[in-house]
Amino acid sequence: MATRDDLLFLRALSGEILAKPPLWLMRQAGRYLPEYREVRAKAGSFLGLCYNPDLATEVTLQPIRRFGFDAAILFCDILVVPHALGQKLWFVEGEGPRLEPVGDAQRLGEIHEEIDRDLLAPVYETVQRVKAALPAETAFIGFCGAPWTVATYMVAGRGTPDQGPAKELFTRDPDLFARLIDRVVAASIAHLNAQIEAGVDAVQIFDSWAGSLSEADFERWCIAPTRRIVEGVRARHAKAKIIGFPRGAGRLIPAYIAGTGVDAVSLESDIDRGFVREQVQALVPVQGHLDPQVLRAGGAELEREVEAIRASFGAGPFVFNLGHGILPDTPIAHVERLVAAVRA
Ligand code: CP3
Q: Which of 199, 251, 286, 323 has the fewest beta carbons closer than 10 A?
């Protein structure tokens, strides 16, 4: 009898080399889809959408219906973890997330020890509903942000070009920063385990700002906390598949794999393919790494890049994806071309 382990996406994550790579796109449920914009308008706010199981289930399924991707990713955001730890969170239209910054011992003291399960209950309900509605051949991915990336938002209260406020804090008061990271690690373990228990098949840890750390800081603030999350998930779910996305880590990716124990890594667009083949894909399956701008531009360059990526990684275990989230002004016709080219 067919089991979840037979899904193409999970077979690739288990190291199997497939004739055609499974395909999904980061941010595949998003503003480039008119049906998403319609539901988003109905929800009123982005967070209102994340915490509404009816609407979040609908938008999670939209890209699966339209494109038949091999995996769905839960519609939510990495910043619901600090929200569930008691930090105020809101999204400013057209700008992005805002949080009440936690930059000192007093503010950190106000951050809870454990996540508020009542706040996140609608997210886990969304997982159950999506799981029940997904086609049998579609895998389901849950996620969290890595502690470093989440902490950059918690400390600055918003996105920052250079992660300056978080770096300033770990330089000035590493013990305080370590306590913040510890809270996020514990919360992330609980959040990922709850998603797995509600029905996701695999999880991805997004470390969008991994590339801004020096080698020593990368070991301390990226690798070590991520390893604790991997261990905390495996302690409950020994076979859980975990993808790490240390965006921008480049040459440090082999150390990240060895140090964290993730099952697979997602790759940014700007990385040397020969290096990946020899020193990354030799260790674990890889996922990536089409430049979102190439997808937006479309045309012959898109076809060439898809071929080049398949030629580079198709001889090993591989999942086709972007190197970062799909851009909101990406034409749907280009995504259709991509799907056809990856499956040709
Ligand atoms: O990939 C998916 O489709 C799953 C859902 C998902 C979202 N955000 C939905 C979202 C995931 C996995 C994320 C991860 C996330 N969120 C990251 C890590 C990955 C990355 O992009 O670097 C980060 C740093 C965040 C925090 C965040 N959320 C920012 C900085 C923003 C504003 C920028 C933007 O694109 O608008 C968001 C908002 C957000 N998260 C949107 C979506 C679909 C857009 C909100 C809208 O529709 O108005």
A: 251
Encode burial over 44-60: b for 16+ CB neighbours within 10 A, e otherwise.
eebbebbbbbebbbbbb
Closest Cα to atom 25 of ligand 1: 78
Residue 270's region, left for phi above 0, alpha for psi from -120 to 50, else beta, is beta
- Which amino acid belongs to residue 72? A
- Write the Ramachandran bin of 111: left for phi over 0, alpha for psi from -120 to 50, otherwise beta: beta
Which ranges of 213-291 would DSSP assign to H, the alpha helix? 215-217, 224-236, 253-260, 273-279
| pTM, 2 dp | 0.97
CATH class, range 4-342: alpha beta
Terminal-residue alpha carbon distance, the chain:
28
Query: What are 125-181's pLDDT values in tens digits?
Result: 999 999 999 999 999 999 999 999 999 999 999 999 999 999 999 999 999 999 999
CB 29 less than 6 A from any atom of ligand 1: yes
Q: Are 340 and 302 in contact (CB under 8 A)?
A: no
For a ligand 1 pocket test, name from 23, 27, 153 the mutation site with the most ligand atoms within 8 angstroms of its C-beta.
27
Bridge partners, 91 (sequence order): 97
For residue 49, the ligand 1 atom closest to its alpha carbon is: 47
* Domain range annotation of the chain: 4-342
